[in-house]
Amino acid sequence: MDLYYTEIKALSPHTGELKTYIGPKIQAISFEDAQNYCENNGLGYCKVIGICVAEIPCKNGTYEPDWSKKIDFEQIKLN
Fold first, then answer.
1. Is the dihedral of CA 43, 48, 54, 57 positive or negative?
2. What is the pLDDT of residues 40-77, one digit of tens each?
3. DSSP string, 13-73
4. pLDDT (tens digit per residue) in 17-46
5. Is the N or the C terminus of the chain less surrounded, counting Cβ atoms within 10 Å?
């Protein structure tokens, strides 16, 4: 199974502007399956936007990527 990113469009409670926020990650077998999961499980406000292949955290206190702590979801899926 793949891990899919979702997004949510909502009004900012601070400014009242329409903004885009990251939603929950959904585990599914296809893009369509991920969207169907959202629709059928109370997450219909989420839009599936892509597959998560890796996460690379930043080094503490910076915006510099810490490649040594990379989480490779493609490699995990193959195991």
1. negative
2. 999 999 999 999 989 999 999 999 999 999 988 876 66
3. TTT--EEEEE---EEESSHHHHHHHHHHTT-TT-EEEEEE-EE-PBPTTSSSB-GGG-EEH
4. 999 999 999 999 999 999 999 999 999 999
5. C
Check residue 14 and give left, alpha or beta (phi > 0: left; psi -120 to 50: alpha): alpha
Spell out the domain ranges in the chain.
2-78
Contacts of 28 (CB under 8 A, 6+ apart): 1, 2, 4, 34, 37
Give the β-pairing of 47-52 and 18-22: unpaired
Please state, in angstroms and rounded to a whole number, the distance separating the CA atoms of residues 19 and 25. 19
Q: What's the pTM value of the predicted model, to 2 decimals?
A: 0.77
